[in-house]
Design goal:
With 255 residues, this protein is an alpha/beta fold. The protein is globular and about 55 Å long. The strands form two sheets. It has a six-stranded mixed sheet with strand order 6-7-8-3-9-10, with helices on both faces. A four-stranded antiparallel sheet has the order 2-1-4-5, covered by helices on one side. The chain contains ten helices and ten strands. It binds adenosine-5'-triphosphate.
Length: 255
């Protein structure tokens, strides 16, 4: 049974593109402090749902609540400030910047220094820059990329780019982290390490919602899974319940 402290709640959420109903009447909640999975076949509506939660899209119908408040129609930057962060299916780093600079960009959401401050170089701005740099290096150490902090993001192997993107997402101090297919393109060892990292992120107190096609990772790290099919919620439950659900096997897992 779900607990009683949801950080995210979706109520009858719907989103169409022209004639395509990408997400239709979807309701579920994510308990604070958990690792939740969102699975389903290609085109099931998972990425659209992520975009609805992160403010990229506004639902045509239904409501999204984050941390107790309705957030329908809030733009992405407002949701980031409230504590929602994400990574993307195709890693979206600033390729011309170093790994450290990418994480520093993520930190700007939490810093007070505006344009004038940066130009004037007031002492408190310098102090804030030093603190930001220290935090960014700690985050890179947390994801295991310390030694690559000065490498150009574009020069990193793909698996490490994913880690850098996770560090950048964590820089905004999220309460909820959405990971969109984080294991795509990773080898078996990297995927296992990613599983351990997701557990560490949960242990930090960050709730995780994961879209993933790698079922061994999903079943290992998620305590609860929502299954989408053709825009609708097909099933929801523990990994064991979902794996045993004949409708889920027929629509997704069997394939
Ligand atoms: P995948 O596992 O392949 O990433 P998904 O479950 O994330 O799939 P979505 O990308 O959310 O599925 O797509 C759901 C449906 O909505 C699909 O039919 C898709 O073609 C359609 N769709 C998604 N985004 C748009 C858009 N911006 N414009 C038009 N149709 C879209």
């Amino acid at each position: 049974m779900p607990g009683t402290d949801p950080i995210l709640e979706l109520s009858d959420v719907e989103k169409s593109f022209g004639g395509i109903r990408a997400v239709s009447g979807v309701s579920f909640s994510v308990e604070r402090g958990g690792v939740y999975g969102l699975i389903g076949p290609n085109g099931a509506g998972k990425t659209t749902l992520f975009n609805l939660i992160t403010g990229v899209y506004e639902p045509d119908r239904g409501k999204v609540f984050f941390d107790g408040r309705e957030v329908n129609g809030r733009p992405v930057h407002k949701l980031v400030a409230l504590g929602v962060a994400r990574t993307f299916q195709n890693v979206e780093l600033f390729s011309g910047m170093t790994v450290l600079e990418n994480v520093l960009v993520g930190l700007t959401v939490r810093t007070k220094c505006g344009f004038l401050g940066a130009v004037a170089h007031w002492p408190w701005v310098v102090r804030e820059e030093e603190e930001s740099r220290k935090t960014a290096l700690e985050l890179l150490s947390f994801v295991g990329l310390s030694r690559l902090s000065h490498s150009l993001a574009s020069e990193l192997p793909f698996g490490w780019q994913r880690l850098a993107e996770i560090a950048r997402a964590l820089a905004s101090k999220p309460k909820l982290l959405l990971l969109d297919e984080p294991a795509a393109g990773l080898n078996t060892t990297e995927t296992r390490e990613l599983g351990a990292l997701i557990m560490k992120i949960r242990d930090m107190g960050v709730t995780v919602l994961l879209v993933e096609h790698d079922m061994s990772l999903t079943m290992e790290v998620c305590e609860r899974i929502v299954v989408l099919d053709q825009g609708r919620k097909l099933a929801e439950g523990t990994p064991r319940q979902v794996q045993a659900d004949e409708r889920v096997v027929a629509a997704y897992l069997g394939a």
